[in-house]
Structures
1.
Amino acid sequence: METLGRILVVEDEGHLADGLRFNLEAEGYDVDCVETGETALERLAPGSAPDAYNAVILDIMLPGIDGFEVARRLRANACYVPILMLTARGRSQDMVEGFAAGADDYLPKPFELAILFARLSSLLRRARVWRAGQAAPASPLPVATSVAPEVFEFNGRRIDFGNLELAWQGTTLRLTLMEAQLLRHLLLRRGNVVSRKEILEQVWGVHEDTDTRAIDNFIVRLRRQIEDEPSQPKHLLTVRGVGYRFDP
């Protein structure tokens, strides 16, 4: 029987890790469990087995380095395996910080298994769709066109939304799903001010009052990829007190 995918569970609570393994395997997944962020980074180290896992279920509260730092290091090492973060802390700020660190989805504890399965299935499906170059268009927005092109070029850069790639000057960078979704949203709204609240609600799915500084950190990282001089941006502009405007 073909498996639904291979999952790395990073969870230091043994009973929870065992429960996740049992239930995920019952659903049809292959599962490996590790207890620390350091071990997870070893399993996903560059050159070791870059395609060994289809997704990572990552707890935030870990001994040693925490889940936020694990996500940041994976992305810094160009590892773009989909990450579903788990945490006992349900604050929206933790969710935003997780997205800024490189997570693709977030689930607070305690959670129902049915919700975990649905989130994981959606994450894997979304990753397959993006890799196939068939990303679904974003929700219609009040702009001239409601569908962003699959490939968009500006400032000598080429964004391939289907393959999650950003290329310029012979260099190709991988984008996370969240980075690609935010760039697509900004492209759809190009020339218009996009508020931080809109990013929270329409890109990250956060509908509570939350500190938006993590969005600013996320934008800083995107600027390093799309601006010639990130400290003096010409394309991804800050509108003080409101949000951002994308001007290709």
2.
Amino acid sequence: MPRLQIDMLPVGDADAFLLEVQLDGPPEVILIDGGKDWEDGDRVLRQLDAYYGRRVDHLVLSHIDVDHARGLLHVIENLKPDQIGQAWVHDLSKHGLGVRQAVRMARKLAGEAESTAVRTVATHLADSVQSNQRLIQALKAKGVSVREAFADGENRIGPLEVLGPTESFFESCVRFYGDIRMLSSMVEQGIAFRRRKTAGMGPAAPDAVLAAAIDDPETEKQASLILLLEYEGDKYLFAGDAGRQAFAACPELEKARKLHWLKVPNHGSKHNLNPDLLDLFKPALAYVSASGVGINPHPDLVTALKNRGAVIYATSRSGNVWHRRGDVPSRTGYETRRPM
């Protein structure tokens, strides 16, 4: 009998999703990201033990970001080799980039920076590239096969279809790591992006605010995997931290029209989804992984989703959010959560 369950774990402004999907064959367990630290990874392990038989058929890193990868390292270190089936991680070294050189450049940029903001962003980039490589090394040390998924290449991760990125779009994003001038430019753009205010909007309608927001310049987010699951005629989209450029580069984004379930990208930022994308996706359910500290999930995005009929759940409001369909047993202590 078909079954589906999804756990969106409360890991702050990071991601950790556990899925169990059973369609025609045996059930498959998929872990997408593992949070930002040891504690988040431990939370994933406890959930695996309690409800998923301490096994992962497909271990997925959505994109090169330490806040998504570091918890996965802890998960890998604490699972036996036969408890991980297949890993899906983009490997910079396969795309013309020297990983050590990229880390050195980012750390050099951070060390020479006069601005705290530059140091913070450059250090985060260095940590992200380094964590990505450590993740690949840890998987290979366990004897786990590591593969890459692209919309125009190996485009299935178990029951999930890869809508993005294409390999060429991925490479256009990560080439910034191999050139100090490009890297410096991206860091500066990222800082300007964080400081930018939407000027002159006044009490604008939510769609106007989203339309005026600029796209996120941080290319590691744009390189996120965009994954589509179809379950009994309904569509589920896992969007990582993908932005408008990333969605525009998806060759078959039309497949994501009229979603049942959307993992809202980038913790509910107003910069990732514009009105046209919201009209395309028009999700019945929208799930947001966010700490609730600061502005995310952004109130204008929340209102724009509600205006299109979405029911919204967020870890910042509800903690762990569990979605189930089909022959999935109930859980002691779990109750129906109120949406936002």
